[in-house]
Amino acid sequence: MPFPLSLEQKQTAFWLAVWAAFLFLLITLGPVLTPFLAAAIFAYALNPGVDRLDRIRFGRRLTMPRALSVTIVVVLFFAALIAMVLIVVPVLQKEIPLLQAQIPAFLAKANDLLAPRLQDLGIKVRVDSAGIKQLAAEQMAASGDAIWAAVLNSARVGGTAVLGWLATLTLIPVVLFYLLLDWPAMLGRVAGCVPRRYIVPTMAMAREVDLLLAQYLRGQLLVMLVLAIYYSVALAIAGFDVALPVGIITGLLVFIPYLGFGLGLVLALISAVLQFSDWSGLIAVAVIYGIGQVLEGFFLTPRLVGERIGLHPLAVIFALLAFGQLFGFVGVLLALPASAVLMVAFNHLRRHYLSSSFYNA
């Protein structure tokens, strides 16, 4: 015979069901929440700057309005992002025309190197520009309908993706402004929703998480600075003309896993092909970026980021792989801060377990 539930147990079950439904709704609306999640991350990182501007006094009673503080911080933040873009664009504008001019000579070298070996295997293909044009024309003539259908399908999918990205990029500044404007009030409302009997431990956990995330941000900034200096100096020693912009790009974008490294590597490889007539440039890029990856993955990130949030280097590597497997690119981006939050919860759960009668009985 089932035991009747008390009023408190019924209320607990009801609110657990409500929160479970809310969590399911958030998971279902995941793609829609992307700009809000990105804006919330930026707001958390930028809010200390807004609070510092709020404390500036003009006279005895006048302080800077929060709306003005938010506007200054948001403008400076997006100005920094635009400055990074303006560093990349001139490099691309310089290298792409040079690359186009070097493509025929590069293909001629590739043909001289590969064509004899391919002929030994019974494959008669020229790897120069004329041979590639002929091969492309034959393939398009043989499967023109399939290629046209694929192009149309890619245009539809790509057009939808571009519109989605444009909408996301437009929403992020707007959402960021309003989040920063109402940040203290929102935190107060969230704290007000916590049951009163749990408010003290919940606020203690929140302060602990905030401290860890602040340490994470400082550690990540140190990693970006060290890598920007390393890649710039190493490429300059190797004799690259674009060492400074490529090194800065690779270092500053390292907080987005694989993107900063990949973009910097591509730019460095293009520069090596254009600037050096032999293989020395490509070898230098391979050595510099290989050492950089080892330096970042096995020393800088575990030491400067992992130790600051109390994670073992193996735990850092596991967190990156696990969150990437579960949530894709966004999971890789949020792996370490989310691990810091989970670590705080685990530590509190462990202390509760060690003090429980179940453990001490």
TrEMBL record:
<protein>
    <submittedName>
        <fullName>AI-2E family transporter</fullName>
    </submittedName>
</protein>
<feature type="transmembrane region" description="Helical">
    <location>
        <begin position="282"/>
        <end position="301"/>
    </location>
</feature>
<dbReference type="InterPro" id="IPR002549">
    <property type="entry name" value="AI-2E-like"/>
</dbReference>
<feature type="transmembrane region" description="Helical">
    <location>
        <begin position="246"/>
        <end position="270"/>
    </location>
</feature>
<feature type="transmembrane region" description="Helical">
    <location>
        <begin position="221"/>
        <end position="240"/>
    </location>
</feature>
<dbReference type="GO" id="GO:0016020">
    <property type="term" value="C:membrane"/>
</dbReference>
<keyword id="KW-1133">Transmembrane helix</keyword>
<feature type="transmembrane region" description="Helical">
    <location>
        <begin position="313"/>
        <end position="346"/>
    </location>
</feature>
<dbReference type="GO" id="GO:0055085">
    <property type="term" value="P:transmembrane transport"/>
</dbReference>
<feature type="transmembrane region" description="Helical">
    <location>
        <begin position="67"/>
        <end position="89"/>
    </location>
</feature>
<feature type="transmembrane region" description="Helical">
    <location>
        <begin position="13"/>
        <end position="46"/>
    </location>
</feature>
<keyword id="KW-0472">Membrane</keyword>
<keyword id="KW-0812">Transmembrane</keyword>
<comment type="similarity">
    <text>Belongs to the autoinducer-2 exporter (AI-2E) (TC 2.A.86) family.</text>
</comment>
<dbReference type="Pfam" id="PF01594">
    <property type="entry name" value="AI-2E_transport"/>
</dbReference>
<feature type="transmembrane region" description="Helical">
    <location>
        <begin position="162"/>
        <end position="181"/>
    </location>
</feature>
